[in-house]
């Protein structure tokens, strides 16, 4: 029997991603549109345990569509991994009369939500908010496009120095064990090569690409490195290259958390708005323990366990195109 949902809670958890605020706004305003009460849960699952919960309305989320980060704050909660922590969280939900939850985050967020939903029969829907784009069940995650654009802007600036000094730059980007940011940024910025977690190419392949660049008289040599690649630490990769090409001056730039910040792109604002509304409508239509996504321009709902246990597949056609265009 479908539960009657009168009050919805929304939280953000895990790493922040540009567009999370747009998703919060969409959830709050969609719930208000459908005449449901809505509560913001601050600092993720930690806030749920600590009762850091506040009722919101349509005006509470004004002027946040364009802001990076998350106005609800975020955290990683060790306490929520315990039964005692989840029990406290449930008691706080009951205290505020919250019937269902919208969880904006990634794998860790959804894992906690799945367990919580099973234990306490609370309807939950996940909204994919992570720059890594590694979640199964959606073509794009909120924040991925913004993070990639940030990387491109940085690489374009580094290109100026690389060309001025005929230097080799290794540029490390985020993504954990996913190469989505690295591959898309490498293609869009005209990098000489890209090193991905999904590829097990030997060091010799990189050496061959660099030798080709020298032969073709390329004045700038940019290599984008995904942080979870199989060749190892970016500084170690650069050191290995120095041994093979002692006359080639090389530098390492690690972009780090710079990629998470900043105003979300139009793509991420629209995606977050679509998914936030779809999350509320999914709950009101009886859906639970699912992640809302956008596949082939259609709203889809994927069971949380399936979204967690499977991995989004990298488009290797982009890698092939990148190799062709890097001559």
Task: Describe the fold and architecture.
The structure is a single chain. The protein has 327 residues and is α/β, with parallel strands linked by helices. The protein has two domains: 7-143 and 264-309, Rossmann fold; 145-260, Rossmann fold, CATH 3.40.50.460. Helix content is 43%, strand content 18%. The strands form two sheets. A seven-stranded mixed sheet has the order 3-2-1-4-5-10-11, sandwiched between helices. Strands 7-8-6-9 form a four-stranded parallel sheet, with helices on both faces. The longest helix has 22 residues, at 144-165. The protein starts with 6 loop residues before the first strand and ends with a helix.
Topology of this protein?
Blueprint: E1 7-12, H1 20-33, E2 37-41, H2 44-50, E3 53-56, H3 83-96, E4 100-105, H4 107-120, E5 124-128, H5 144-165, E6 168-173, H6 180-189, E7 193-195, H7 203-215, E8 221-226, H8 234-244, E9 250-254, H9 266-284, E10 290-295, E11 298-303, H10 304-309, H11 316-325
Parallel strand pairs: 1-2, 1-4, 4-5, 5-10, 6-8, 6-9, 7-8
Antiparallel strand pairs: 2-3, 10-11
Largest sheet: 7 strands, mixed
Helical run tally: 11
Q: How large is the radius of gyration? A: 22 Å
Provide mean pLDDT, rounded: 94
In the predicted model, the low-confidence regions spanning at least 5 consecutive residues are none
Q: Given the helix and strand composition, which structural class is it?
A: alpha/beta
Anisotropy-based shape: elongated
Q: Please report the distance between the alpha carbons of the first and last residues.
A: 61 Å
Query: How many structural units, i.e. domains?
Result: 2
Helical amount: 40-55%
């Amino acid at each position: 029997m479908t539960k009657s949902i009168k009050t919805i809670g929304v939280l953000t958890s895990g790493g922040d991603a540009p567009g999370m605020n747009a998703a919060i706004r969409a959830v709050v305003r969609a719930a208000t549109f459908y005449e449901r009460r809505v509560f913001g849960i601050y600092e993720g699952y930690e806030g749920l345990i600590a009762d850091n919960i506040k009722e919101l309305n349509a005006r509470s989320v004004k002027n946040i569509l364009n802001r990076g980060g998350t106005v609800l704050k975020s955290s990683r909660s060790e306490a929520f991994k315990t039964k005692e922590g989840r029990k406290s969280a449930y008691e706080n939900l009951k205290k505020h009369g919250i019937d269902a939850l919208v969880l904006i985050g990634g794998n860790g967020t959804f894992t906690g939500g799945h367990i919580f939903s099973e234990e306490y029969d609370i309807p939950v829907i996940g909204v994919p908010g992570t720059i890594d784009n590694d979640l199964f069940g959606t073509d794009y995650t909120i924040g991925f496009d913004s993070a990639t654009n940030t990387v491109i802007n940085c690489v374009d600036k580094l290109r100026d120095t690389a060309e001025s000094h005929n230097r080799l730059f290794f540029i490390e980007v985020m993504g954990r064990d996913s190469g989505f940011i690295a591959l898309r940024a490498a293609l869009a910025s005209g990098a000489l090569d890209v090193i991905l977690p999904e590829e097990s190419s030997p060091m010799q392949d990189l050496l061959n690409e660099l030798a080709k660049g020298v032969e073709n008289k390329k004045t700038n040599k940019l290599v984008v490195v995904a942080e979870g690649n199989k060749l190892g630490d970016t500084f170690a990769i650069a050191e290995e290259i120095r041994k093979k090409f002692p006359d080639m001056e090389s530098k390492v730039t690690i972009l780090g958390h710079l990629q998470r910040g900043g105003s979300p792109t139009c793509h991420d604002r629209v995606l977050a708005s679509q998914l936030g509304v779809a999350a509320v409508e999914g709950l009101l239509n009886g859906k639970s323990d699912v992640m809302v996504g956008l596949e082939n321009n259609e709203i889809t709902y994927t069971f949380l366990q399936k979204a967690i246990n499977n991995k989004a597949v990298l488009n290797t056609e982009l890698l092939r195109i990148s190799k062709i265009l890097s001559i």
